[in-house]
Amino acid sequence: MGGVAGHMAHLSEDLDLTFNELISILSKVASADIKNATEKVDGQNLFLTVADGEIRTARNNGDINKGGMTTDTYISKWSGHPAENAFTNGFKAVSAALKKLSPETLEDIFSNGQRYVNMEIMYPKNPNIISYSAPNVVLHGLQYFGDDETLDSRMLAKEKFRSLVKAVDGGMQNVGEEDWSIYGPKIIALKKLADGSAIEEVTSKIESFAAPVGMSATLGDYVSLVVKKYTEQVDLPNEITERLLTLMLDPDEAKAQGIKVTSLKKGLPKELQSVVSKLGAKTNSRKYIASVLKPLEIAISDFAIEVLRGVKSFFVDEHDEEVQRMRDELQKSIVYLKALQSSGDEKMGELVDKQLAKLGDIENLASSLEGVVFEYPPGSDRIYKLTGAFAMANQIIGRARRSGMAEELEEVVELEFENENDDPVVDTEFEDEPKRTETVAIIPGAFKPPHMGHVDMIKQYANQADRVIVLISAPTKGGRKLPNGREITAKDSQNIWNLYIGSDPKVEVYLSSHASPINAAYEISGKAGQREQAAEKMGMDPINKGDTVFLGASNKGGDAKRWTGARKYVGDDLKLVDPAQSAVEPLLRAGGEPFSASDMRELLGDIPTNKEELRDFAGDNIDGVLRILGMAALEETSGMSGGAVAGASGNFNGKKRKKNQNSVIRQENVDLNLVDSVVRLIMERGILQ
Question: CATH homologous superfamily of domain 439-637?
Answer without folding.
Answer: HUPs (3.40.50.620)
